[in-house]
Amino acid sequence: MGYKVAVAGATGNVGREMLTVLAERGFPADELVPLASRRSQGTEITYGDETLKVKALESHDFSDTDICLMSAGGSVSKEWAPRIAGQGCVVIDNSSAWRYDAAVPLIVPEVNADAVAGFTKRNIIANPNCSTAQLVVALKPLHDAATITRVVVATYQSVSGAGKEATDELFTQSRAVFVSDPIEAKKFPKRIAFNVIPQVDVFMEDGFTREEWKMVAETKKILDPKIRLVATCVRVPVFISHSEAVAVEFERPISAEEARGILREAPGCLVVDKHEDGGYITPYEAVGEDATYISRIREDPTVDNGLMLWVVSDNLRKGAATNAVQIAELLVNRQLIQPKRVAA
Ligand SMILES: NC(=O)c1ccc[n+]([C@@H]2O[C@H](COP(=O)([O-])OP(=O)(O)OC[C@H]3O[C@@H](n4cnc5c(N)ncnc54)[C@H](OP(=O)(O)O)[C@@H]3O)[C@@H](O)[C@H]2O)c1
Asked: What's the Cα-to-Cα distance from 323 to each of 276, 297, 330, rounded to whole Å?
């Protein structure tokens, strides 16, 4: 008998992708329950060949559900994850609500799979921010080879990372430009169509944004607390996939050729790095893919042991849904959970 799996936030950008990824990867689910707010109750949603009706999260009984993949935003997770976990259902949460709790593992399976065993403290596992997930997948094998000391990253983040209303805003504003309608900015602080915005999430007291802080805190928790990282997070008018320009400094020398060879063998990484026109990956090409693509690998001539990389991945897949499903697979494959209906 398989698992009973709930997806909370099933009507959202990430939730829909979760259903797709669960079906694509043949996750051993006997029953799948799509959940969202009361507004979406009864909405039909696709899961593989099936059409399912969305139920309201607040009236679902989790006592016979094994795993809940949550992507319904931070405040919903703060309130609901402990209640769901308290009913013996393991929560894999996509929001930032639990990522920095020392009793909650923050997992990218290619990087720190063993830490998942710590989930029993709260019955909650956190999924990182989309920008962090793809970054640490690329950094981990290089860190193992030459020990990273410092990272400087600039992100080029797609609008889907801010949810479905933000995705609609890019579409509506772009259309408005062509038909000379007035441009309205609701989800983003400035116009996003044909523009770039150097602000993702809110400002903090030190002048960094919360997204920039998240990349620092999460890289330390997942990969190594000794790594120093500084980020500039930028929203760009791209629908799906985040890109990152990354400068990495190491304790030991590492050549671009050596790094290319290491990354070619590394789990979750795909190197596309030809020194010719178009010999790199752009966000558009990464849509719908699970890999973290690495291009433009160069030695940095301005520091002793430095490399420059261009890192691209689909933020809804590896940055969210795929990573969450991989975590659920870890629980199953390592026999860390049993289906309740067998155990009973
Ligand atoms: N997008 C990314 O790249 C990404 C990556 C990593 C993590 N995340 C995180 O994942 C979460 C969801 O992101 P998203 O982009 O999928 O957002 P989204 O497209 O705006 O979807 C939000 C989902 O949450 C549901 N929801 C809202 N309020 C609810 C409530 N009170 N009770 C139950 N369900 C409720 C919505 O249901 P209704 O349709 O009924 O309103 C919808 O299904 C966020 O915490 C985000 O930070 C996103």
From this structure: 32, 25, 10
Q: Is the pLDDT of residue 344 over 80?
A: no
- CA distance between the termini of the chain: 12
- Tell which atom from ligand 1 comes closest to the C-alpha of 54: 40
3, pLDDT greater than 70:
yes
Strand order from edge to edge, sheet including 269-271:
228-232, 148-156, 242-250, 306-313, 292-299, 269-271
- Strands 3-8 and 67-70 come out as parallel
Paired tokens of 183: 């441009």
Report which secondary-structure segment, H or E, holds 91. strand 90-93
CA of 129 to the centre of ligand 1 (A): 13
Separation of alpha carbons 246 and 135, rounded Å: 9
Cβ contacts of residue 89 below 8 Å, gap of 6+?
6, 62, 63, 65, 66, 67, 68, 123
pLDDT above 80 for 292: yes
Q: Is 101 helix (H, G, I), strand (E, B) or coil?
A: coil
Residue 313 in contact with ligand 1 by CB distance below 6 A: no
pTM, 2 dp? 0.96
